[in-house]
Design brief:
This protein is of the alpha/beta class. The protein has three domains: 3-92 and 270-291, NadA-like (Rossmann fold, 3-Layer(aba) Sandwich); 96-180 and 295-309, NadA-like (Rossmann fold), CATH 3.40.50.10800; 186-260, Rossmann fold (3-Layer(aba) Sandwich), CATH 3.40.50. Helices cover 48% and strands 15% of the residues. The chain is built from 17 helices and twelve strands. The strands form three sheets. The chain has a four-stranded parallel β-sheet with strand order 2-1-3-4, with helices on both faces. Strands 6-5-7-8 form a four-stranded parallel β-sheet. Strands 10-9-11-12 form a four-stranded parallel β-sheet, covered by helices on one side. Helix 5 (70-79) links the parallel strand 3 and strand 4 (84-86). Helix 2 packs parallel to helix 16 (275-284) and helix 4 (49-58) packs parallel to helix 5. The structure holds 1,3-dihydroxyacetonephosphate and iron/sulfur cluster.
Length: 310
């Protein structure tokens, strides 16, 4: 069946086909917190980049379907090479990850041969292959701390790098000039307006937000750290991140009072995954993630070093 035919099916039929194919193929569907509500509902596991990587490394399913952007699906393949990994839309890329290429990283390494290259997981498999240690928003501080006094090249998110640099007071860190278009939209004026309107609220932002926003927030955390904070606390919380996380909060913890710093901060790349595409992926095998073994193995070293740290 083609995508148009899948799109003509009712939601109930799509869900039934998805569940049937999952059972028949011993497949697990992982989904990032920014996925559409209907896609999240069809996922077995939801989480942030770190949690989903850990899950991919440990699952006993034969097939992993990743509802997220390509670097996340690639990370699953890197960690679980013996499994078949699929993504329902191969065009679902992350522009932040696309902003760093292997050749430029190699040039930087040549210029600064004593520097440790630490890459955010929002990078291509090729960039991970020339990286010493990966990190996510959930463990970036621990990963950079783990190299002690050694100088670091940090890529590709400058805001995340700046937050780590300031938090650790680490001077010898070269920051790549990249950023996420979604989190760049969240500005200090949005945070100040929320503070003025709700002075009692706790404001938590993602470290991809501009450093001015990060430094004015009450807390900084990954998407799952935000979800867990809201789950475990009863006060009014205002979140500075992509709005997909709200779908999960409304569904799983509807009694909480949550607002959004920027309700139009939408990652259109994440939203490319739809329920008809997920059904087609499970039934027809579109699209399998394949990596050159040399790249996969080298990238795997950088991700495993991260997982060992935290
Ligand atoms: P998390 O790992 O915090 O979920 O973030 C991933 C991401 O792409 C944020 O833009
Ligand atoms: Fe990439 Fe930003 Fe979308 Fe995250 S929110 S996937 S960093 S574009």
């Amino acid at each position: 069946m083609n995508l148009k035919e899948y799109s003509e099916l009712s939601r109930d039929e799509l869900i039934e086909r998805i569940s049937r194919a999952k059972k028949e193929k011993n497949a697990v569907v992982l989904g990032h917190n920014y996925q559409r509500d209907e896609v999240q509902r069809a996922c077995d596991i939801l989480g942030d980049s770190l949690g989903l990587s850990r899950y991919a490394a440990s699952t006993d399913a034969d097939i992993i379907v990743f509802c997220g952007v390509m670097f996340m699906a690639e990370t699953a393949k890197i960690l679980a090479p013996q499994k078949r990994v699929f993504i329902p839309e191969k065009g679902a890329g992350c522009p932040l990850a696309a902003g760093a290429n292997m050749e430029d990283v190699l040039k930087l390494k040549e210029k600064y041969p004593d520097h440790i290259v630490i890459s955010y997981v929002n990078t291509t498999a090729e960039v991970k292959a020339v990286t010493d240690i990966c990190c996510t928003s959930g463990n970036a501080i621990e990963v950079v701390r783990s190299v002690g006094e050694k100088p670091v090249i940090f890529l590709p998110d400058e805001n995340l790098g700046m937050w780590v640099k300031k938090t650790l007071g680490k001077q010898n860190m070269i920051l790549w000039e990249g950023g996420c278009y979604v989190h760049q939209m969240i500005r200090l004026e949005h945070l100040e307006a929320a503070r003025a309107k709700y002075p009692e609220a706790t404001i938590i932002v993602h470290p991809e937000c501009p450093y001015l926003v990060v430094s004015a927030a009450d807390m900084v955390g990954s998407t799952s750290a935000m979800f867990n904070y809201v789950k475990e606390h009863d006060e009014h919380v205002i979140l500075g991140t992509e709005i997909g996380l709200i779908e999960r909060i409304i569904r799983e913890i509807p009694d909480k009072k949550v607002d959004w710093l920027k309700p139009d901060a939408v990652c259109f790349n994440m939203k490319q995954i739809t329920l008809p595409k997920l059904a087609r992926c499970l039934e027809e095998g579109f699209y399998e993630v394949e990596l050159e073994e040399e790249i996969r193995a080298a990238a795997g070293g950088a991700i495993r070093r991260m997982i060992e740290i935290g």
